[in-house]
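Dear support,

I submitted the protein below through the web form. The confirmation email said the job was done, but the results page showed an empty box. After a refresh the structure appeared. I'm attaching both so you can tell me whether what I see now is the final result or a partial one.
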Amino acid sequence: MFTQLEKIIINTPGTRSEILVGQSWETVKELLPESGVVIVTDENVRRLYGDKFPKVPLLTVSPGEGSKKLEVIEHLAEKLLEAGIDREGFVLAVGGGVVCDVTGFLASIYMRGIRCGYVSSSLLSQVDASTGGKNGVNLGGTKNILGNIKQPEFVICDPAMLLTLPEQEYLSGLAELIKTAIIGDKELFDLIDRSYREILDRDRHLLTVLVAKSVNFKASVVSEDERETGLRRILNFGHTYGHAIEMQKSVKHGFAVASGMELATDFSFRKGFISLDEKGRIINLMNKFGLLEPHNIPDDQVEQLILHDKKKTGSDINFVFTEGIGKATVNKITVSEVIDFYKKFRDKN
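What the results page shows now:
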């Protein structure tokens, strides 16, 4: 089946980023400068696709969150120097969310900033991590606490690359797709809900449609609020609890966010923002795809993890609630209320 290419533009002050959904990743050669290019990838992606990479210096990191640390950035920067990369250089990420995060951060600080682009190989990265310019690394047990915003010149989202993803990686990305639907696109939520079999079968045409819908929504948000001073905060739905669960339980990002969305959905219901029916629809959809796993973070650890959340300001936190499928709101509530709700939810379940 023919897959339609969609070009989505993110315009922010001084930058223009093109997201190419449905385009073959091998066409990246046409988008690169003639010289001064280095590729960053991970061992898994290199094994699968490395023989088709452009013939430029290649830097490889270990797969997974363990590579999101300053030591890795320092090592990669040394390799850029050795390769003779100067301020006209270009760094291409080929990989999932971790590779794009690391590469974006590297490009943003090397010689005070050089150009970059991404070939996004995972569903999580295509629907979320590679769009919007956020990058970062972890510090100890605190996720993404070091980083900044650096828009890639382009992102290629090739649905064919999703066919080689391990099942758990694929489902992890699906959680972020569902997040987008909950906070901003009821039609997308309904499409996911009625396309269970096609999604599990990784239908390429459907995946292109789903990714394009998600990226279009995120692009509209980022274009209005690149620095997350207002509207962009809604993209953090499920992430306050999700990041805590991810760091404490060492589970994949999407599964942790799904659990965070379950908590945030129940919290929204307790606050009177959504009906029992909509709460049920959201949680049932995540259960349908097997995204919800048990988490029982002890009191002292949940407090420490929530207190380190980037969205905290003083004793308050900007918490994202859903006001119904396709709508979200950000309310400033106390950190203690966030912690107390987790304890009540955990003890009830």
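Response: this is the final, complete result; the empty box was a page-load delay. The two ends are 45 Å apart (CA to CA).
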